[in-house]
Fold:
Amino acid sequence: MPPPARRRDETSGRLLVPLLIFCLAFLAGCNVENQSQNASPAPAPAGASPTPYIPEAVPETTAQPPQKFTSIPTAKPRDRITVHYHRMDGDYSTAGLWTWDAYQKHTPAKNELEPLGIDDYGAVFQLDRQRYGESDRIGLLPRMSRDWTRKDGTDRIWTPSLGNEVWILSGNPAVYSHRPDLRPHLDQAFADKTNALQLILSEPVDSAKVSANKIHIADEHGNAVMIEQAQAASPIHVQVDTSSALDFAAHSYTVAIDGLGAPQPLIPRGVLDDTQLYYNADAQLGAIYSPMQTVFRVFAPTAHSASVVLYDQPAGDAGRQALPMHSAGQGIWEAAVTGNLAGKCYMLLPLGPGLPGKETLDPYATNTVNSSSRARITPPTPAPPPLLQKPDAPEDMIIYEMHVRDFTIAPNSGVNAPGLYLGWTQGNTRLPGDARIHTAVDHLAELGVTDVQIMPVQDFANDEYARAYNWGYVTTAFFSPEGMYASNPADDSRIRELKALIAALHARGIGVIMDVVYNHTSDTAPFFDMAPNYYYRRLPDGSLANGSGCGNEFRSEGPMVRKYILDSLKYWVREYGVDGFRFDLMALIDRDTMTDIVNELHAINPAIAVYGEPWTGGDSPLQDKTDKTALLQVPAGAFNDDYRNALHGHPDGPDTGFIQDGSHRDDLEHAMEVSDWLSGPGQSINYMTCHDNLVLWDKLKLSMPEATGALIKRTAKLGYLILLTSQGVPFMQGGEEFGRTKGGDDNSYISPDSVNEVDWSLKAKNYDMFTYVRDLIRLRKEHPLFRLRTREEIHARQHFLPAGEGLAYEIDGSGVPGETWTQALVIANPDNDQPLSFPLPGGDWEMACDANGATMGQTFNGTVSVPAKTGLVLYRQ
Structure:
């Protein structure tokens, strides 16, 4: 959601195909198929959830036989599935159908299907079910020109109950078991104010057909609502003003247009942003437990009734009890249930216009269980981990990114709970057969990093028992830890064990930064069932916006959505002792919300780190994005891709940067002075790689195809020299400090452990590389001149010197608080073969670090020779 090398070209914000494969395949796995009905539904009674209009089946007498086409060969005819696809614009010139096994157990050799022909309905595709492992859930997603920015709507899912011939429509999420009626109809009706509606038609019609006298609005009792005016805002949009304000708290309404299909429920949409009607900043939502009673509260503003459904167990119907909730006003529903409910499970059942009317998770659930299928009532114990004394400023941090499973899953990690939260809690671990090599958390303490950024641990959509590998960028429940890393996904283990992980890192003086994904959600997230037109951004045609590239965008600007984001972040700080947050696709969070996040978190603890990706994964209707244009006003940090690209080139391509061949030196110097879209060094997250794209070793191997392993290692060390002496906040991907490789996999979001695991034997093999990085980290921590606080101070104290094809910068340390050096000089030689002869500024200089790491005692003056593909750090006291 939306970073996977996960998903995109971070420089331009263009979405990479692997990202969409990830998001589409994963999110599709949790969609529910939509089946057509033989007749248009009648308006729903009061308190019920009206059934959306579904096009009628075309009478047999009007159906036209398809043109002839040759069916694909299959081993068994029953495995041949035919998909008919209709576009309103009639353009099938570049149409294709992306398909996948929604269970992610079997990947077909060719996901993209070409049309076999065009009939009077549209394009005809066929697939062989055997290619998907005989899956009974196959994803279908039409797109044009093989371009993910031109995908048509959201994921559709075929299941055997639909039969072997199905029909889909442009922009419609349904999969029909018979040919639907294509006649124009009223598709959706929304209320954007109490007296202003927007109607969306299935296709353009003559404006005379949507005049005020042809439109009918009625409440659940059949009482008509007077219309003041109606006018076409576009060929498929009709704006309607009513004569009086509608009361959505007391009534449900339907809208019909003469000759345009069945009545549609009127769905409150923009009106929900009226903070006088639908906002309570102080409301405590979720399951508020005490031994005497548990109070359940949920924001479901379009519901006309709601229930809390209790269960004895995470699965099965034992103890099922549905208890009514009552309206507490402002869109909130509430129920107080007496007795000690600890250990019981629950779901919520909101009913109302546009709601599916099914049991769903509580969005504020703090302990999801059984693969997010239920919430568990869990007392708020144990206590949060002790707070960590954080560095004084962001510039003092050295951030290390790691996936929970990757860190300990390898057999040579030496831990007793590989791949789990508990694997991070075990100390005194060593590489089997080599007692010199510390592994797991002891390695982090030995390396000297200040913070670990753990990839998503908010509960995401997956089978927690299967523990199939996933990066986790498809969040379902934002208050609950993920269960696949817990010893038992069915109880409170995930809470206790994640707290133990954090406590283990805090005990070693290491902070924990959570990688959070508030730009989109999984398709199974409860917001779709609570108020889908409130929690997600929509395009003018009513479809979901997709700036994340994962099928939806979380609408952070909604007042109660903003409250939800803030409530959850503060919960992780107060309940888990989290030290910071990295925001995936931060640009999809509006500027006001992002500013509130920083301010409210810093009111709890001024040292909490807040930073993210200043780009989107695609086009978004959001106007005030927290992108690079916002960061001079929004006090959050951001990944500096200017720095990354200048240092080693584009993250996935064979192009080069300074450390490979000396290119882009001017760009690198500019980024090292803090890019002009940032207000200061504390905002600049400097990095060579992160989980997205190629790891450093693989990037260098791709861009230096003739290089030996020894040369790749020297090049990587040169990158670390510059990274750890640059002004700003250094960030490194875990395991790369000793040559981690993924075999060239640039998007390993669901790749096997053999690709993703941290192989601790590499630490022994490349021990010199590890000690080099360790020494540079120690040097940076000991000398504040590498950690200046303002752009002005950097410009006054740091100066670049002529160095031929190399890079040299001098830093004035005189008067810097805590600094023992008066000057530092860093020289980097990117040449593969030739040493760099560098004329030193006058006087003696002492050696602090050479090609082998920290070294003391050597004195230089006049000229110093810097060996090929290495660097030096010199100083004066």
